[in-house]
Amino acid sequence: MSDYGSGGGENGPVFVDVYGTGRRLGLKGHRRGLEHPDNRSKGPHGFEGPHPDGPFWQRGLKGLLPLWTVFWGGFFFGHGILLVISIVLIIPAIIVGMTIDPARTGVSLLVTEVVAGLIGTMIFLFVMWSLVAVWRCAPNVDSVKWSWVGRLVVTLYAAAWGGAVWKFFA
Known about the structure:
single chain; mainly alpha; 61% helix
């Protein structure tokens, strides 16, 4: 029985998936009603918890995500997020490093060097993940041209990083 006065009865508000979001996201049970016995423990929208194929980064490495999600969400905007995290970490490290002992700058910059090493490791891991994820998810497109464009972009990106690393160590 439905209770129209409280917005959905004992199960909470009613969710009507007008735009097919549940189908696009691969949520199980998006077609079943909330009154189904299996849905009572799954939450108000039939969502069962973590994705069965693993977290976002793992599905990207396996090539299970659409290319647009990995390219724009992970590769493009991920670099911006990584830049913000790097700035937020390096500025306090410089301030702390300089306030430990301003007279001995070589020793006091040790904090900055350690944080810079951690940031460098984080950037390296992210770059490797983004290259592999975009390359492996490239076939998950409607038009083959986007697969080629995605792979071309990450190839040029890898070449640019390779040149920078070569110049740094040479």
